[in-house]
């Protein structure tokens, strides 16, 4: 494995539960050293977090100012839009297996290959749109492994809200949830008209009354990285300051 610091690397992991290989990206910060243990940020739609969110630059800037703890960034990219619907969507045919892959196999691989803190609170899941829904799915399924999850403008429907209602251990979670005020009527990446604002407000109305750590923000803007990118610094500080 390439352990060059300050670079984004790509590798592959064989998943037994899914019966296939997945591409994985990882970023080791500048001055990365085996002398220290690291927090782990896991992003879904990782190529977009690197390209449009520039998450590694935002991390590096905060780290240099000593405004956040040491972390590595590991990500699961999507090969194409159709794939996201099958794997990241809560209604996708491979969704449950993909959640299990992250909750059991991916974290095992991360802890085996990098010097990590290995505590639930030292891990943060992040995603936007369907990948944000997926981040919440993993936290719901594995609250003692991944209590910290961020979803920018997640896809939400009534069935997904039921998943929260059926999780007896919500109090273990620390969620960060945003939605854009212009997301009441927009065109998705699949070319369909959608309203994300209303169902996200419905999820918020439920979570607001539950005993968990929960930050909810309605942002100026739409279903785009221009809206999400400025939130990344806040999120990194929120969990890892």
UniProtKB/TrEMBL annotation:
Signal peptide annotation: none
Residues forming coiled coils: none
Pfam families: Esterase
Protein name as it appears in the record: Enterochelin esterase
